[in-house]
Amino acid sequence: LHGDRAYADDQAIVGGLARLDGQPVVVIGQQKGRTTREKIRRNFGMPSPEGYRKALRLMRLAGRFGLPLLTLIDTPGAYPGVGAEERGQSEAIARNLFEMARLPVPIVSIVIGEGGSGGALAIGVGDRLLMLQYSIYSVISPEGCASILWKSAERAADAADALSITSDKLLDLKLVDRVVEEPLGGAHRDINQVVADVKAGLQDELDKLRMMGPAQLIESRAQRINAFGVFKESA
């Protein structure tokens, strides 16, 4: 599926109809590109408002036809350019969060590389969240966080530790439901096995969610979202 039916086709977001083990699904993914030319064409995986509105078209398509939604997250964040802001970047992200939270179909998301801030969350509000073992998921990059807190990007390692951006820490915090193991060195060392493991994980989670009705899915999703976060009260 191409275009947002309002402005343009953002190639940082790809998606369409697919089958998972013969079952029809809707898939949305973020694409960074491999070659220099492709990275430029896909804006290094940083979606613009039209990309998120294209994703919204697919979400609504899934809801209309009762198809499970799968999203693959891999972005450093939403594109922060002036043009993107003028075309309503914040509104596009907020709209997706709102629509995904009440979509009456199973939603399973997986972080396959980098999950950066609202740019990732805009296709990541779901019933289950998976992560590849060596992927990261964070509200801000470690370098950006270090620059704000300590006025120096050189303390990125300290920021990364404080942010708990890795899959094992996020699993402990119950922000992630499952971690898909990767071979030493990363998924590219044995891509076929990792793809098979990702498929098995997605299928397993979908099989569990298919037993729930639309109202139950929405209520369970809301409870999951509201349970995020830890805080302490002081007198």
Give a description of the structure.
The protein is α/β, with parallel strands linked by helices and 235 residues long. It has one domain: 2-enoyl-CoA Hydratase, Chain A, domain 1 (Alpha-Beta Complex), CATH 3.90.226.10. The protein is built from ten helices and seven strands. It has helices spanning 36-41, 49-65, 82-86, 89-101, 117-121, 142-149, 156-163, 167-172, 191-209, 214-226; strands at residues 13-20, 23-30, 69-75, 107-116, 128-132, 136-138, 178-180. Strands 1, 2, 3, 4, 5, 6 and 7 form a seven-stranded mixed β-sheet that branches. A hairpin with a 2-residue loop joins strand 1 and strand 2 (23-30). Helix 2 packs parallel to helix 4 and helix 6 crosses helix 7 (156-163). The model has no long low-confidence stretch (mean pLDDT 93).
Radius of gyration: 18 Å
Unreliable parts? none
User: Would you give the CATH topology?
Assistant: 2-enoyl-CoA Hydratase, Chain A, domain 1
Largest sheet: 7 strands, mixed
Shape: globular
Number of helices: 10
Count of discrete structural domains: 1
Strand content: 15-25%
Distance between the termini: 54 Å
Mean pLDDT: 93
SSE string, helices as H and strands as E: EEHHEHHEHEEHHHEHH
Roughly what percent helix?
40-55%
Number of strands: 7
Structural class, judged by helices and strands? alpha/beta
The CATH architecture is: Alpha-Beta Complex
CATH class: Alpha Beta
Question: CATH homologous superfamily - what is it?
Answer: 2-enoyl-CoA Hydratase, Chain A, domain 1
